[in-house]
Amino acid sequence: MSRLILVVLCILCVDIAAAQTPIDKGRYLATAADCVACHTAVNGRPMTGGRPFHTPFGKLYSTNITPDKKTGIGNYTLEDFTASMRRGMGMHGNLYPAMPYTSYYRISDEDIAALYAYFMQLPAVEYVAPENDLIFPANLRFGLKAWNWVFFDRQPLQQEAGKSPDWQRGNYLVNALGHCGECHTPRNFAYALKRDTPLAGNVLEGWDAVDIRPQALRRQGWDRASLRTLFRTGVSEQGAAFGEMFSVVKHSLRHLSDSDLDAMITYLLDDDETANETLAQTIGDPQGAAEQYPQGRADYVAYCAGCHGREGTGITLAFAPPMHRNAGVRGENPYNTIAVVLRGLPVQRMSRTNARAGMPSFAKELNNARIAGVVNFMRTAWGASGTAVTEDQIANIREDLREHGFLGEHQ
Ligand code: HEC
Ligand code: HEC
Ligand code: HEC
C-alpha cells in the first residue's frame, strides 16, 4: 500500500519533467541555476558573458557560453561541459570559483546532460569578454589547482533520513542548482566557503546576504506564505528583495514551478507542514521605543513615515514595504537596515510593466548618531531586539561602504 503511494508520488514528481523535451528541461534548469545572471553583461546579449566580478584579488569577467566555436563553448563535448560544471575545469585551464562549480558539482548527471542539450542549441554569438584584471598570484590559473586541492571538498549533498521527498528536492534546488550558499555562506581568508556554517550569512558587495537557516528565518517572522510571495514578486509584508537578491528573484526564483518553489520553502523553513499560513504577529514595543529614543522617533516620522507609514505599517505594498514586520529590522544583525539608510535603493525593474520604486539615500542628511537613533527606534519598536547599535558601528559601515564605492552619486 505505502509502496503504491510512493509510486503515485513519484509519477507526480516526474510529471512536469516527462512532459518536456530535453531542451525545455535544460532551459528550466538553466533558470533554476540562474546562469543568465552571471553570464550576461549590462546591456549585453544573454549568455555571452562579460559581466565583471569584483573579488578581493581584482576584477574577473564571466565568459561566453553560447555555442560559438571560436569565442564560446561550441567545441565543448558533454564531458568538457561536465568538467567545467563539476570540477571547475575549463577548456583553457582551471576556472575561478566565481563560477559556482563549488555548488554545481552536486547537480545530477541527468540534469547536466539536459543543460548541455539546451546550451548547444542556443544561437551562437561571437563575443570575447574583456581581459581579467587580477593581482599576482591570483592571475595564475594553475594556482587554482592548489586552491581546489585544499578547499574544494566535494561532499555529496546531505540526503538526511526522515525528511520528505519535498524537503530533499528543496535541498537539491537550494544547494546544487540555486547555489544559494555562494552568497549566503560565509567565506574564509582564501575566499572559500566555510563548510561548517552553510547559509549562515555573508556580507558581499556592501549588503548582508543574510542568515537563511531555518531558525533565523522563523525568528524573523518568515512563513510559507510570505516566502512564496517574496520569491514570486520580489516583495512581501516582511520585506523586499534588494541588491543581488532582486536579480535572483527576477531571473530565477519567480520562474520556478509551484511545486519546486514549495519544495525550496519546505527545505528553508525545515517545515514539512503546509498548514502554517498565517503571518507572524507584530512584536516589539513602539511606546517604549519612542520614550527611549525620542530623536530616533522624531527622525523616523520626519524622514521615513511618508513612505513606510507613521506606525510602520506601510502605505501600500506596491509602493514601499512596511517596517513593523520587517525581517531585517527583526534580525539579529542590523547591517542591512543601516546600509539601506546610508545607500538608499535604486529603482528596480522586474519586467516592462512592473517596476519597484527606489528609496533615497540618507547618508548626507543624517549623521551617524541620528542614524543610530532611527535604527534603534525601529529595532525596539518593531524588532524586539535587545542589542542597541552604536554610533561607531554606523561610522564603520559608512566608511566601508564609501571605500568600496557604494555611497556614490548613482545612489
Ligand atoms: C555566480 C556567477 C555564475 C553563475 C551563476 C554561472 N557562471 Fe559560469 N562562469 C562564471 C564565471 C565568472 C566564469 C569564468 C571563470 C574563469 O574565467 O575562470 C564562468 C565560466 C563558465 C564556463 C567555462 C567557459 C569557458 O570559457 O571555458 C562554463 C561552461 C560555464 N561558466 C557555464 C555555466 C552554466 C551552464 C551556468 C548555469 C548552470 C553558469 N555557468 C552559471 C560565473 C557564473
Ligand atoms: C520616498 C520613499 C521612501 C522614504 C522617504 C524612505 N523609504 Fe525606505 N524604502 C522605500 C522603498 C520603495 C523601499 C523598497 C525598495 C525595493 O523594493 O527595492 C524601501 C526599503 C527600505 C528598507 C529595506 C526593507 C526591506 O525590504 O528589508 C528599510 C530598512 C528602509 N526602507 C528604511 C527606511 C528608513 C529608516 C527611512 C528613513 C530614514 C526610509 N526607509 C525612508 C521607500 C522609502
Ligand atoms: C548573488 C547573491 C545571492 C544569491 C545567489 C542568493 N541570495 Fe538571497 N540574498 C542576497 C542578498 C544580498 C540578500 C539581502 C538583501 C535582501 O534582503 O533582499 C539576500 C536575502 C535573502 C532572503 C531574505 C530576504 C529579505 O527580504 O529579508 C532570503 C529568504 C534569501 N535571500 C533566499 C535565497 C535563496 C533561497 C537563494 C537561492 C535560491 C538565494 N537567496 C540566493 C544575495 C543572494
Keywords:
411 residues; mainly alpha; Cytochrome Bc1 Complex, Chain D, domain 2; 3 domains; 3-stranded antiparallel beta sheet; 45% helix; binds heme C; Cyt_c-like_dom; C-type cytochrome; Cyt_c-like_dom_sf; metal-binding; signal
Question: What would your notes on this structure say?
Answer:
The protein has 411 residues and is mainly alpha-helical. The protein is 45% helix and 7% strand. The chain contains 19 helices and eleven strands. The strands form five sheets. A three-stranded antiparallel beta sheet has the order 1-2-5, with no helix packed on it. A hairpin with a 5-residue loop joins strand 10 and strand 11. The chain binds heme C (3 copies). It comes from Microbulbifer elongatus. Pfam families: Cytochrom_C, Cytochrome_CBB3. This is C-type cytochrome.
- Count every beta strand, where a strand is a DSSP E run of 2 or more residues: 11
Runs in which pLDDT lies below 50 for 5 or more consecutive residues are 6-12, 274-279
Ions and ligands? heme C
Strand content: 5-15%
Oligomer: single chain
